[in-house]
Amino acid sequence: MREILSHLVAFETVGGNDDEIEECFEYIGERLDFYPFIKKRFESNGKISYVWLTEDTLKPKVLLNAHIDVVPGSDGMFVMKEEGGKLLGRGVSDMKFAVAVFIDVLKELYEEKGELPSLGIMLTSDEEVGGMNGVGYLVNEIGFKPEVVVIPDGGDNWHIVNEAKGVLHVKLVVNGESAHSSKPWEGKNAIDLLMKDLVVLRKEFPSPEKEVWETTMNIGQLHGGSQTNQVCDLAEGYLDFRHIPKEKRESLWKRIRDVVKFSELEEIVTADPFFVDGDDKHIKLWSKLITRYRTERLLAREHGASDGRFFTSKEIPVILSKPEGGLVHTENEWLDVKAMGEYKEVLKEFLISLTKTDN
């Protein structure tokens, strides 16, 4: 697995590096040639995805999902290193390790059993930019609907994510009237009006001083004006709302519209919340298998989004859980070597248990 992961890290699969992404997919395909998988290539708005299936169906029993795209990093990040029992490099935790594990565990299962259960491997290249043309396209447009999905892209340190927040990015636009700044009464300052809306929005969505499980708002960008000595006639603001699953997007929009008085509102980005019933049989099975590594507070909430939301929006259960690692999107991203091997054994037992259930 370490050898495969080292090669995967070396591919600089940052968004826009199409050649590197294609070469990475080709390398993965060569590692999967031990089995007569049905290989399917998909493309949506220039974003490439591949699915390998043991049978030609949109409804495999298990779908193993990962993304090969990564965020940018220094040149040294694309050379995997090992120090003190940790693997270091871009993508070791987020989330190329999963691809190495998938390949190794399926090859081992095939060599031991002489067959593989009904399953698929879905790999995409756009998760870091929203996932709409990867998993979003494959689920919503192509119609993939597995019984259960395994996505080791959340639930750090053996947690199991059963709730994650939805996303709503909103653009506020205010039109004013320009004038010379020495005579502000002759104009209408768009920045002043935008600030008034931001003040009431902040009262509606206070900025928490510590972690809370509630809907939050971040003021991400503000733009307005072109000259200091001119009354601004156009101002824009970009807000990022993260809403808990029980607050529907329609309700969130109502809260925003009820207090905004001067701005025109535009929806920029949306992402559904993530929710999995903790009593789902697949969650219970995974919980049982990982208790050797974590025994307390297995279920967890996450504030960020993952591709898992596309599946849970279709009521498809997702195992969003991963081994020990951290500092993703930084120059110090790491994954515990021992934990990667432990994750492989858990996944192997999980697949074997589902196969026994079928029989």
What topology does this entry show?
Blueprint: H1 2-10, H2 18-31, E1 38-44, E2 47-53, E3 62-67, E4 81-83, E5 86-88, H3 96-113, E6 119-124, H4 135-142, E7 148-150, E8 160-164, E9 166-175, H5 190-204, E10 216-224, E11 234-243, H6 249-259, E12 264-271, E13 274-275, H7 281-290, E14 299-302, H8 308-312, E15 318-319, E16 325-326, E17 334-336, H9 337-358
Parallel strand pairs: 3-6, 3-7, 7-15, 8-14
Antiparallel strand pairs: 1-2, 2-6, 4-5, 5-17, 8-13, 9-11, 9-12, 10-11, 16-17
Helix pairs in contact: 1-3, 3-9, 7-9
Characterization of the model:
The two termini are 30 Å apart. The strands form 4 sheets. This protein has a 6-stranded mixed sheet with strand order 1-2-6-3-7-15, sandwiched between helices. A 4-stranded antiparallel sheet has the order 4-5-17-16. A hairpin with a 2-residue loop joins strand 1 (38-44) and strand 2 (47-53). The mean pLDDT is 93. The chain has 2 domains: 2-163 and 273-358, Aminopeptidase; 166-271, Alpha-Beta Plaits, CATH 3.30.70.360. The relative contact order is 0.17. It contains 9 helices and 17 strands. Helix 3 crosses helix 9 and helix 7 (281-290) crosses helix 9 (337-358). With 359 residues, it is α+β, with helices and mostly antiparallel strands.
